[in-house]
Design brief:
GTP-binding; alpha/beta; Four Helix Bundle (Hemerythrin (Met), subunit A); flat; binds guanosine-5'-diphosphate; 444 residues; GTPase activity; 3 domains; 434 Repressor (Amino-terminal Domain); 8-stranded mixed sheet
């Protein structure tokens, strides 16, 4: 996410971090670099100007120059201001209305609207425990209705059927009636998108909005379009009272311009970001966490949440108990850990959220993505039960046999055993000093 912006900014920041003293010249230089990085990331000019102005005012003030660690203080100023321009706090959906709460989704064709309806349905069902129904009012493309039906089945929510010969308002009114009868909490309405904004499209969605009075009207926009995303959202918000924006495709090589511009240009909060094509590729937008990620300070909180949602709790609990009792960590435990990692989208999905990752070239990151974890699992699979429980048995000839069984070289097996030893060491620190022990393990 926002890799090039991150790379540029973290370069600037690295140079400042350790400084014991900063001169005004250093600060001018740094703000110049931040400005160039923002412009290159396609952040809208008024946003860049406002940001730089605020950073400058604070940077030459007491807060930074008099600080014992001016480099750090300046980084904090930049992070605060990036956070503020994105809206400071995560903006929640308003669902506190008599059921069904209607969410109207608008956007240009191809922005990711239908995909987002599926993701949002899953999010509301699984994380907010809501009974969800979806309906398509896109009467121009029968394929769009079919696409939504398939998505609804995939995420297992109710689907209200519609057909091209119906009127959008009639469809949605019927869906609301049905939702009420079926005790649905949230009804998400997908609408037609066009290739660009046109009068007929605006008139139609305005009429639809007036007829169904949704509690949330979300504008879905592709982050790859940079600051244009903010401009399109602004046009829409002039015609329709938007309550928020969903920024899609932030997992691609979007430069960050959209994320940083939307709030300032439209006055509307970004509520969610799309982070992948699959139904679970939707994150709540947390301005502070995104700012930290842009500055390559990592997004450990999101990482923790992701782990909490996706980890097999029983297995995690068993391992925690085992470690607490001071029992030995073995290769079966390692295999469990690796498999859980795979469930979370492999190392790549996790790495993206760790501090400092922006510095690591893509070529290196790609080496550890995808294939690495399944290969490690394959090596462990080719060991006997006894060997997994007692890694000390693994002498040279056993390692050669395992390598052959997994279709790999003894060097691969040795590498895995090194990684195992590191994990084992970390676990033993954990059992000694709890969380503090782990933190020590990570640092040292
Ligand atoms: P609509 O015309 O606005 O309804 O757009 P669709 O929902 O059909 O999405 C258009 C394309 O964008 C599809 O190929 C989606 O898989 C893709 N897409 C949507 N959201 C995301 C996202 O967050 N990340 C990625 N990588 N692709 C997305």
């Amino acid at each position: 996410m926002f890799e090039s912006l991150t790379q540029r900014l973290s370069g600037t920041i690295e140079r400042l971090r350790g400084r014991g003293r900063l001169t005004e010249e250093n600060i001018r230089e740094a703000t110049r670099e931040v400005r160039i990085a923002l412009l290159e990331a396609d952040v809208a000019l008024p946003v860049v100007q406002a940001l730089i102005e605020r950073i400058k005012v604070r940077a030459v003030g007491q807060e930074v120059l008099k600080s014992l660690t001016p480099g750090q203080a300046l980084i904090k100023v930049v992070r605060d201001e990036l956070t503020a321009v994105m809206g400071s706090q995560a903006a929640d959906l308003n669902l506190n209305v008599p059921a069904p709460a209607v969410i109207l989704m608008a956007g240009l064709q191809g922005a990711g609207k239908t995909t987002t309806v599926g993701k949002l349905a899953k999010h509301l069902k699984e994380r907010r425990k809501k009974k969800v129904m979806v309906v398509s009012a896109d009467v121009y493309r029968p394929a769009a209705i079919e696409q939504l039906k398939t998505l609804a089945e995939q995420v297992d929510v109710l689907f209200f059927p519609s057909a091209p010969e119906q009127k959008p308002e009639a469809i949605v009114k019927a869906a609301i009636d049905d939702a009420r009868k079926s005790y649905v909490d949230v009804l998400i309405v997908d609408t037609a998108g066009r290739t660009s904004i046109d009068a007929a499209m605006m008139a139609e969605i305005k009429a639809l909005h007036a007829a169904v009075t949704p509690v949330e009207t979300l504008f879905v926009v592709d982050s790859m379009t940079g600051q244009d995303a903010a401009v399109t959202a602004k046009h829409f918000s002039e015609a329709l009272p938007l309550t928020g924006v969903v920024l899609t495709k932030t997992d691609g090589d979007a430069r960050g311009g959209a994320a940083l511009s939307v709030r300032y240009i439209t006055g509307k909060p970004i509520k969610f970001i799309g982070v992948g094509e699959k139904p679970d590729g939707l994150d709540v937008f947390h301005p502070d966490r995104v700012a930290s990620r842009i500055l390559d300070m990592g997004d450990v909180l999101s990482l923790v949440e992701q782990v909490e949602q996706q980890v097999d709790k029983d297995k995690a609990q068993k391992l925690a108990e085992k470690v607490a009792k001071g029992k030995k960590f073995d290769l079966n435990d390692m295999k469990d850990q690796l498999e859980q990692m795979q469930n979370m989208g492999g190392l790549h999905g996790l790495m993206d959220k760790l501090p400092g990752m922006g510095q690591i070239p893509d070529a290196v990151k790609n080496q550890v993505t995808g294939k690495e974890v399944p290969r490690m699992v394959a090596i462990i699979n080719s060991m006997t039960k006894k060997e997994r429980r007692n890694p000390a048995l693994l002498n040279g000839s056993r390692r050669a046999r395992i390598a052959k069984g997994a279709g790999m070289t003894p060097a691969d097996v040795n590498k895995l055993m090194k990684q195992f030893q590191q994990m084992e060491k970390m676990m033993s620190k954990l059992s000694g000093g709890g969380m503090k022990g782990l933190m020590r393990g990570m640092r040292g």
